[in-house]
């Protein structure tokens, strides 16, 4: 099942894929809703798909604290921008499917049902052959690697040390750089982990088990595009 913020988000999701949703009704999530998410994670798998803004990030944190180990899908702000603001409801079916194809599983714990169970089937014919093989490999890559232990920012976790060091973010111009915010935004898009400030971005690298190889490839693409240079 896909967790979204409101009814309009559900409409947008169902234009893109055949999936059931759970609506949080905003960032003040009722305990009954959290229990539904907990049950859905155990039985079917859950993908958290909130707006790419501050309230959306708050919702992710609330759910992850109560129901650790959820899967997460992120939209780029550019894909979620509408006339009256930013939200999943404004995203095209193509952008939604692209985000769902890059789902990341947090290191908080293994779900009884994986992210695949959260979606019944695509609204359009799924990719086949080499494309499908690449998609499956991308999912496997996203679910492997080291856990998070953000010692450099004063946060510890029993999952172990992250593969990406705090110093790597400095070297990559993702923090302590005049264009750090724009570079993090693009890196978040390339890695499929969304935008965050420096501390939270570092935490996400471990939370979603981003490997050094993934980080290096995204950084090469960032350099090719000349973002923030």
TrEMBL record:
Source species of the chain: Cohnella rhizosphaerae
Name of the protein in its database record: Ribonuclease M5
GO biological process, one term: rRNA processing
GO CC annotation: cytoplasm
Source organism, top-level taxon: Bacteria
Protein family per UniProt: Belongs to the ribonuclease M5 family.
Domain Toprim: 1-89
GO molecular function, one term: ribonuclease M5 activity
E.C. no: 3.1.26.8
Annotated catalysed reactions: Endonucleolytic cleavage of RNA, removing 21 and 42 nucleotides, respectively, from the 5'- and 3'-termini of a 5S-rRNA precursor
UniProt-listed PROSITE patterns: TOPRIM
Cell location: Cytoplasm
Gene encoding the protein: rnmV
Function text: Required for correct processing of both the 5' and 3' ends of 5S rRNA precursor. Cleaves both sides of a double-stranded region yielding mature 5S rRNA in one step.
Record keywords, A-Z: Cytoplasm, Endonuclease, Hydrolase, Magnesium, Metal-binding, Nuclease, Ribosome biogenesis, RNA-binding, rRNA processing, rRNA-binding
Annotated stretches, region: Disordered: 117-141
HAMAP family, sorted: RNase_M5
């Amino acid at each position: 099942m896909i967790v979204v913020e409101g009814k309009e988000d559900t409409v947008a999701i169902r234009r893109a894929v055949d999936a059931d949703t759970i609506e949080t009704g905003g960032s003040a999530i009722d305990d009954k809703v959290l229990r539904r998410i907990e049950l859905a994670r155990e039985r079917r798998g859950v993908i958290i798909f909130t707006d790419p803004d501050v309230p959306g990030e708050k919702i992710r944190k609330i759910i992850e604290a109560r129901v650790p180990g959820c899967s997460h899908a992120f939209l780029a702000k550019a894909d979620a921008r509408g006339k009256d603001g930013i939200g999943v409801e404004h995203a095209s079916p193509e952008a939604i499917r692209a985000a769902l194809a890059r789902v990341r599983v947090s290191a908080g714990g293994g779900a009884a049902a994986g992210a695949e169970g959260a979606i019944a089937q695509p609204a359009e014919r799924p990719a086949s052959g080499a494309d499908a093989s690449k998609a499956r490999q991308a999912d496997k890559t996203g679910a492997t690697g080291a856990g998070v232990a953000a010692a450099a920012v004063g946060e510890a976790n029993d999952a172990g040390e992250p593969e990406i060091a705090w110093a790597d973010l400095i070297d990559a111009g993702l923090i302590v750089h005049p264009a750090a915010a724009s570079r993090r935004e693009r890196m978040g898009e390339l890695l499929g982990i969304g935008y965050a400030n420096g501390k939270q971005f570092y935490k996400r690298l471990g939370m979603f088990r981003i490997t050094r190889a993934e980080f290096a490839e995204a950084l090469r693409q960032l350099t090719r595009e000349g973002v923030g240079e």
